Amino acid sequence: MAKIVVDPVTRIEGHLRIEAEVKNGKITNAWSSSTMFRGVEKILSGRDPREAWVITQRICGVCTTVHSLASIRAVENALGIKIPDNARILRNIIIGSQNVQDHIIHFYHLHALDWVDVVSALKADPVKTAKLAQSISDWPKSSATYFKNVKNRIGAFVKSGQLGIFANAYWGHPTYKLPPEANLMAVAHYLEALDIQREYIKVHALLGGKNPHLQTFLVGGMATPVDPNSENALNADALALLMKLQNKVKAFVEKVYMPDILTVAPFYLEWAKIGGGIGNYLSYGDFPDADGKNWFPRGIVLGKNLAKVYPLDEKKITEHVTHSWYAYKDESKGLRPSEGVTVPNYTGPAPPYKYLNTDGKYSWVKAPRYDEKPMEVGPLARLLVGYASGQKEIVSAVNGFLKKVNAGPAILFSTLGRTAARAIETLLMVNKTFEWISELEANMKKNDLDIHNHKWWEPDTWPKEAVGYGWHEAPRGGLGHWIHIENKKIKNYQAIVPTTWNASPRDARGAMGPYEASLIGTPIADPRKPLEILRTIHSFDPCLACAVHVYDGKGNETAAVKIM
Amino acid sequence: MSSLSSTPEKHCCPPGGYFQAEADRILVLGIGNVLMGDDGLGVHVVRELQKVSLPENVDIVDGGTKGIELVPYCENKKRLIIVDAIDLGREPGELIVLKGEHVRRYLGETRCSMHEVGVSDLLSVLALLDIQPGEVLLIGLQPEKIEVGMDLSKSLQDNLQGIVDTIKDMIHA
Question: pTM for this one?
Answer without folding.
Answer: 0.91
